[in-house]
Amino acid sequence: MKITTAEVEHVARLARLELSAEEKDLFVGQMDAILGYVDKLRGLNTDDVQPTSHAVPVENAFRPDQAQPSIGVAKALANAPDRAESFYRVPKVIE
Known about the structure:
- The protein is mainly α.
- It has a domain of 38 residues: Histone, subunit A (Orthogonal Bundle).
- It has 3 helices and 2 strands, in the order αααββ.
- Strands 1-2 form a two-stranded antiparallel sheet.
- A hairpin with a 2-residue loop joins β1 and β2.
- The termini are far apart.
């Protein structure tokens, strides 16, 4: 499959890129090489290969959701630099 300069210009226009003549020639060769490699991959027999989303097996590392008692207001505010009753006090940011 041969990529033409017109196709490179079309892709560049879609990407809103302005390419010089040298860049167009460079991209014609690069895109042609990429599509040649994809064409080579198409020839491989993948009938017995299972589809994957990761190269290595990945397992869920999350714990199950379980309702637990709260840590309480006193513990939550223990390290607060400034507080008012059961709230954090922060500097005013709106003028």
